[in-house]
Amino acid sequence: MASAVLAVQELGDPEALDDLASRVGGTWHRAVSGAYALYRRAAEATAVRELATAHLRAQPDARLIVLGDLNDEPTAATTQILSGPPGSEIGTGGFDHPDQGDAWRLWNLAPFIPGDQRYSRIYRGRKELIDHILVSHQLVKPLPTVRTINQALPSVTDDPHQHTGESGSDHSPVAATFDLP
């Protein structure tokens, strides 16, 4: 049985926005940079989704993991793009009833993270889960153990330079343990 990992790195990179602003010129407004970041995350999610779909079509029984910093929460449109066909998401009545979309669907493991641990970053004092692990149907059962390795995280703001020079990350790792046959 084939296995694969597709890693997604830092969608919506602020340095890319600064670069674009320097080339475009003028005043860079938060709404414009927010829209650009959303378009970029959606394009990146679509590209990764296409890679995942192609891989799963070629190898329907593949163990595929897509993971990384998506800069969006589980219910965001860009995260949903990665999931693929709707129908039997974790936590829905259809989860235990396979359907035709299961061969291409990716399941976001976020619902398996204990509620008090379900965050990977603190933004303006609010806990949010923006780092994700999505898996193909070959890895969703038996149910994996999923957790965040929460550490003392700084609360980030809109100022990307606020914590420059400080050691450590502003994200907690998300980890999953699979019971493979």
UniProtKB/TrEMBL annotation:
<protein>
    <submittedName>
        <fullName>Endonuclease/Exonuclease/phosphatase family protein</fullName>
    </submittedName>
</protein>
<keyword id="KW-0378">Hydrolase</keyword>
<dbReference type="GO" id="GO:0004519">
    <property type="term" value="F:endonuclease activity"/>
</dbReference>
<keyword id="KW-0269">Exonuclease</keyword>
<feature type="region of interest" description="Disordered">
    <location>
        <begin position="155"/>
        <end position="181"/>
    </location>
</feature>
<dbReference type="GO" id="GO:0004527">
    <property type="term" value="F:exonuclease activity"/>
</dbReference>
<dbReference type="InterPro" id="IPR036691">
    <property type="entry name" value="Endo/exonu/phosph_ase_sf"/>
</dbReference>
<feature type="domain" description="Endonuclease/exonuclease/phosphatase">
    <location>
        <begin position="32"/>
        <end position="171"/>
    </location>
</feature>
<dbReference type="InterPro" id="IPR005135">
    <property type="entry name" value="Endo/exonuclease/phosphatase"/>
</dbReference>
<keyword id="KW-0255">Endonuclease</keyword>
<keyword id="KW-0540">Nuclease</keyword>
<dbReference type="Pfam" id="PF03372">
    <property type="entry name" value="Exo_endo_phos"/>
</dbReference>
